[in-house]
Specification:
Helices cover 14% and strands 34% of the residues. With 658 residues, it is an alpha+beta fold.
Length: 658
């Protein structure tokens, strides 16, 4: 998808979203925009942006980089076995040896170049595979929420299965015929192609998407630097945003927001994060970026974001578990349930969510290769980028965000320190960095995987319930482990101490509502009762950590702990009948319905009576906070309200309003 936004209208010659008023959404899950007027954004000046980005490139003496193949997705050591995914690994109990696991089929992921009037896409597979097909087109910027619409296609020549692949698509009138040139590319002489590769792999036909920018020079296509990811916004503090994006070659960049002078990122890089501060409250601001390689400059379409009205209600969407399953195409693209999660994120944005929280299992993961792992995360970000162009999304780690060392007897251990899954996750995502410090030699960082943020009167904390994950070790003193790593679902003491202090400080600073999220459910309602934070109730270390977490939540008067892991929706009220000595009950909400294969709702007998509602449908949860009142709705992918809850916070905690 090419730079998608929210519900759209054309205003002043640019695309801007219609952000729905809270009052229009009372009692309704999804509201059609109808004839709502679009607010008037303040527009930056594109010409100034292009000049600023180009001047920065010239000032840095940036030399244009050639467009070439992407990184090798993992080199297998000589004599070592490798497997296309962890499910294919044949566990061997004798003489355990290291193995390499790859979630994706590529040795080199697809990359594109413009050569002699043709779009050429190449890729390399780890095993011989059949020919692929390429589709391309130029999407109209006035319709950015729609899926790609292609106007040309080409196929790889038939023949024997091969590992090196190439498709050449002529860029003739099928791409730029005047009758389909919706955005006047011929007139302005620049644009961006979107393309989709479909290729065979182990009985499936996976997709790989990309885009390639160009200038028309004397009627010929000349490749230009491409914004390959984003732009996206993250909200890290009151009154500021960070706009971030990636390019296919090193560039300098300029950002224009709301008519301000361009903000310049002058250090050549393929990744840019530009902070914008001193933003006015309750304002809709348009923004645009320009990137330059010193020769050519590429402009993004306009995007917009809104700053909060301090007096307005707060609305937060929470959903989890979009890791791919066994489905075809968009159901499992690069380890991501791309189509379902994209649809759900767009629906949450249309429901006027001011922030979206996604606590884990973004991807299928379980890879031993950092590039393979990061490509999966980037694919998730591509699914989210249309919404995150306007709405901040806060992400957390699940058990599938696993960057591993692995052995043939089934033992796995998260990598250490800066090589860990936590470190890779933090490098790609833009989240707050106010979490605890790691404890222990080689321990991965917590920054940007454990954190908290405020949105008006609401304080949200994110836990990492799969920190430094280890599995299948029969002996905790196994030399491969050496005392490192944790059982799945264990929240370590340093996280607990941080959470207790964080919630206390938030309440002292005036937060009315506290909500805590993490991937593993403290009280799972499906197959993850075998692990998660429950482990059948039979592991003393897990029991102690879970009960401490619930006491922290109860003592702080948190409204809920919201998790995923089980691929369904459930709501349970957990009190002193389950956790002895608890000061007050706390809601346990599982919202794991963002596209992963569904699980039945079947909680353990120990707390089955506490279950209030459940559904296996694809869904998200929408939380609205207005003064002391809280409303939560679980909303299906088709807009059906699966469950709802209304609470009122008084001196004794939360009381139901229904």
């Amino acid at each position: 998808m090419f730079y998608p936004l929210l519900v759209l209208s054309l205003v002043g010659g640019c695309v801007s979203p219609i952000l729905l008023d809270d009052a229009l959404l009372e009692g309704s899950a999804v509201v059609s925009p109808g004839s709502l007027p679009a607010p008037q954004p303040v527009l930056p000046v594109p010409q100034d942006l292009a000049q600023a980005a180009r001047a920065a490139a010239e000032g840095s003496n940036l030399a244009p980089a050639p467009w070439g193949p992407g990184p090798v997705l993992g080199v297998v050591p000589v004599g070592q076995a490798w497997y296309p995914n962890r499910h294919a690994l044949r566990w061997e109990e004798e003489a355990p040896a290291p193995v390499s696991i790859f979630g994706l089929p590529f040795v080199r992921a697809p990359w594109a170049a413009l050569e002699g009037g043709e779009l050429v896409v190449r890729w390399e597979t780890r095993e011989p595979s059949g020919p692929g097909a390429l589709y391309a087109g130029i999407p109209p910027e006035s319709d950015p929420l729609a899926p790609p619409r292609f106007t040309a296609r080409a196929a790889e020549p038939p023949g024997e299965p091969r590992t090196a692949h190439e498709v050449r698509l002529p860029l003739d009138k099928r791409v730029l015929d005047p009758v389909i040139d919706a955005d006047q590319v011929l007139e302005r002489s620049w644009g961006t192609l979107v393309w989709r590769l479909i290729y065979p792999w182990q009985g499936h036909f996976p997709y790989a998407d990309g885009r390639t920018s160009f200038h028309l020079e004397d009627g010929a296509f000349a490749q230009a630097p491409t914004i390959t990811l984003g732009p996206m916004i993250s909200r890290l503090a009151k009154g500021e945003r960070t706009v971030w994006f990636e390019t296919d070659v090193p560039t300098t960049a300029a950002l224009g927001v709301g008519g301000r002078a361009p903000l310049v990122s002058s250090t050549p890089s393929t990744r840019h994060e530009i902070r914008v501060g001193d933003l006015p409250p309750d304002a809709l601001l348009a923004y645009q970026i320009a990137v330059s390689d010193g020769i050519r400059t590429t402009l993004s379409p306009y995007n917009t974001f809104r700053t909060r009205d301090p007096a307005a209600p707060v609305r937060v969407a929470i959903l989890s578990d979009s890791r791919g399953g066994e489905g075809p195409g968009l159901d499992a693209m690069d380890g991501v349930a791309f189509g379902p999660v994209q649809t759900l994120l767009q629906a949450a944005a249309r429901d006027n969510a001011q922030a979206i929280v996604f606590p884990g299992d973004l991807i299928d993961g379980y890879s031993t290769d950092p590039d393979d792992y990061e490509r999966q995360l980037r694919t998730w970000l591509h699914a989210a980028e249309g919404v995150q162009a306007s709405v901040p999304i806060f992400t957390g780690m699940g058990n599938h965000e696993a960057l591993l060392q692995a052995w043939t007897d089934g033992a796995t251990l998260d990598r250490e320190g800066d090589l860990s899954g936590e470190a890779s996750f933090a490098r790609l995502m833009v989240n707050p960095s106010n979490g605890p410090l790691p404890v222990g030699e080689g321990a991965p960082p917590y920054l940007e995987t454990v954190y908290s943020f405020d949105l008006g009167q609401v304080h949200v904390a994110m836990l990492n319930t799969n920190y430094w994950r280890a599995s299948r070790f029969k002996d905790p003193e196994d030399p491969r482990r050496g005392g490192r790593g944790n059982r799945e679902g264990l929240v370590r003491q340093e996280q607990m101490d941080w959470l207790e202090a964080d919630l206390s400080a938030a309440s002292a600073a005036g937060a009315v509502h506290l909500i805590v999220t993490g991937h593993e459910g403290a009280f799972p309602t499906g197959p993850h009762a075998r692990d998660g934070m429950w482990w059948g109730g039979e592991v003393p270390e897990i029991n102690a950590a879970r009960e401490r977490l619930w006491r922290i939540l109860a003592d702080a008067q948190a409204v809920a702990y919201v998790a995923g892991d089980d691929h369904h929706y459930s709501r349970s009220l957990i009190g002193a009948e389950t956790v002895a000595g608890l000061s007050r009950p706390v809601w346990s909400v599982i919202t794991g319905g963002a596209g992963a294969p569904w699980y039945a709702v079947a909680p353990p007998e120990a707390y089955a009576a506490r279950l209030v509602a459940g559904s296996p449908q694809l869904h998200y949860t929408l939380w609205s906070f207005d003064g002391p009142e809280v409303q939560m709705q679980a909303i299906s992918i088709t807009g059906e309200v699966l469950d709802s809850l209304r609470l009122w916070k008084g001196e004794e905690g939360y009381q139901p309003l229904d």
